[in-house]
Amino acid sequence: MLKTLLKKELLAILAFFTIGKNGKRRSAGVMAGFALLMLYAFGAMVFMFWEMSKMLCAPLVTTGQAWIYFSVMGLMATSLGVIGGIFMAKSKLYEAKDNDLLLSMPISAWKLLAVRTIGLYAFTFVFEGLVFLPAVVQYFTVVGAQWQAVIGCVVVTLLMPFLALAVCCLLGFVMAWMLGKLPYKNLFAILGFLAFMIVYFLLYSKIYDALNYVIINGEAVGAMMQTALFPFAQLGKAAIGNGVSLLWFLLVFVGAFAVVYGLLSVTYLRIVTAKKGERYAKYKATEHKVSSPRKTLLKREFLRLFKSPGYFLNASMGTFMTLLVVIMAVIQGDVFGMTAETLQTSGFIKIASMILPLALCFLASSNTLTAVSVSLEGETLWQLRSLPVKTQDVLNAKLLLHFIMTAVPVALCGCGMGIVLKLAWYHVVFAVLTGILASAFFAEMGLMINLKFPNLHWTNEMVAVKQSLSAVFAMFGGWGVSLLPLGGYFLFGKYMPAWGYVALWLGIFALATTVLWLCIKKWGTLLFESLS
Questions:
Q1: Residue 531 DSSP code
Q2: Which of its termini does the chain have fewer beta carbons within 10 Å around, N or C?
Q3: What is the pTM of this model?
Q4: Per the structure, how many domains does the chain have?
């Protein structure tokens, strides 16, 4: 049975790549395009961590501090593994749509838990491998192959994800147990994640300063790791072939997972089958206001967004990023290291006035609300289709939700960064208008992609939000579109006045938004009505 369950998990992963809507196999072109997007995403992350490891490796290795190098890279890999799997653990272990179906069969709960955990391990291993594998290659490029280090690096690479997996599973257990008893569990989940992301972005903004500090103060960092970060100090020494440290590494990393897995195995069935506590409102006879179908549909979209922490936190990540950028800019008095004084003395005002709209476009492209909104209807799509409302009004509500959640923060961010950089008012106006039009364009683009590549047969809504083909296409396609103004600047924009170049892209986005709107009006409604 365990083998069958593993096969089912593998087929579900493969189906994500190969099976489209209505159970039909995707075309070779679509699968090839998806593969290229995945390679691009993984390649970009590998390149970033390769550069970080290149920055650290030679200075630390030549001074006999190679273990510190692996300790730092292992710490970064584990952090990324926790960030990547923290919410996936809760949804995959406790909220999978087929949990009830599988538990109604003669399948032991421990087997189901084991299969879910193996899937989480694979997911965590991929995230950590993006960091640690480039670090390993960089190390052997500098020092050459040494059999002790080869064995140590292989063991560390394979077993390091167990600590991040233990943390993710433990937090998933806590959230599933506690949030199920809280009356406002979604609010607590959202606020907790926002606090986590604020700390993460603050730390990430200082990462290169931290790397420079490690290079300059290697001995002090090593002494600190020996005490405050003992597990990662043993990880670093195990990676270079220290046998005693390898045993400590196994004890801490694998032992932590064993303890957490034991806790989960005892409580898993009770939590999965428990009735979630909810606060029920007492009925009061009051007069209800009648709303128009359009307002009601928009309210429905907002309620769906705020009642689903996974949807809210993943699909509207651009909103958080935008607000964090402007808050940090106002607090620090600079934008990506640029200040008003440096712009005046260096004469880079023109460049700054074009970087601002480019940054706003990139931030606007990070939201994927419309790219998953149709998929989230799932197998209850018939309920929406049965309502006495126009299809165009249904699609407009999804577009308006995305636009409000994106354009408002983008406008605030543009004004805030313009004030910090003391740009001329017309530069700020052009930048904000470009960001607003880009928000409308990306909303329409995401909706068209989701109508073309919906996933209505998911077992957990996080599959539709984080792993759907339309979400990937919309995000990377949006990033690609937002970089077009940068390429255009080097081709012909540098020969134009700044306001003229920004006005040109303002017109391009206006035209593209209009064309997409007409496409949705003509073909989008037909695609939506053909879904089943």
A1: -
A2: C
A3: 0.61
A4: 2
